[in-house]
Amino acid sequence: MMDCKVALEEANGDMDKAAEILRKKGIVKAAKRADKIAAEGTTIVKVADNTAVIAEINCETDFVTGSDDFKKLVDDIADSLLVQKPADLDSALVGGINEKISTVVAKIGEKISLRRFVVVEKSDSEAFGDYLHMGGKISVLTVLTGTTDSALAREVGMHAAAAFPKYLNRAEVPTEILDKEKEIASVQLKAQNKPANIIENILKGKVEKYYTEVCLVDQPYIKDEEKSVAKFLESKGTGIAVKQYVRYELGEGIEKKEKNFADEVNEQLK
Question: How far apart are CA 6 and CA 94, in angstroms?
């Protein structure tokens, strides 16, 4: 809608001329792809001094993911986010990223979208860790306090990529999630005819185990499972801790449409 408004203003209200402007910019062609599901693509993490960005950019097919046009677009988007530091997706798209995307969509004829991103800032006394896994299938951005060792921060990112933590620490686990875990375990234990006092003690143990499964700092560190991630960092220096982490896995939460090859060909011929 914003693109249409700008085109109409540029054309002084002339609808035909505005349509021509939109076609020249590739926006009309891009709009035709708007109902397509874009579940392929890549994630990216990039650092520039004390600012970092992690983002997911989607397209429709894995073939496009490997193209030079798409790779350049991904880099351009990450660079724009680092410079503009937009507060949300709408601000990012209005800031010129939407036009970059539309230009590439017009060229390759496939839907591309910036799905999500986070811009993170740190101080001079902290460390960023940027980790990219499987060529962009997973990206992790970490921030450590108490150190400026980016290699150490990247180690934590590598762990997060492999261990898939849901939360940074226990304080982040929602009460309703914890209550649900307790409820499920309690029902199982009652079915085993366990006494109430025994159930209470077992539940405490199960809650502790749950924390070690879902909380980054409580998880057994992948390279030394005798230590938690928090204990591993403590062994590297006093006061070193994980302040923040963001983990993006390509396509998580997107429902893909299954099509056979013949249907895909016929659609392209329309």
Answer: 12
> Contact at 8 Å (CB) between 54 and 43?
yes
Measured between alpha carbons, how far is 183 from 27 in angstroms, rounded to an integer?
52
* Highest mean pLDDT of the ranges 17-26, 35-44, 118-127: 118-127
Residue pLDDT, tens place only, 204-221: 999 999 999 999 999 999
Q: Which fold has domain 33-121?
A: Tetrahydropterin Synthase; Chain A (3.30.479)
Q: What share of the chain is helix, strand, coil (3-state, %, to 5)?
A: 50, 25, 25
- Confidence band for 89, pLDDT divided at 50, 70 and 90: very high
Q: Classify residue 29 by burial, with Cβ atoms within 10 Å: 0-12, 13-18, 19+.
A: middle
Task: Report whether pLDDT(6) > 90.
Answer: no
Amino acid 160 reads A
Apex 98 CA angle, 94 and 102, nearest 5: 150
Segments making up each domain of the chain, as ranges: 33-121, 176-209
Q: What backbone phi and psi angles, to 5 degrees, belong to 12?
A: 55, 40
- Beta carbons of 58 and 116 less than 8 angstroms apart: no
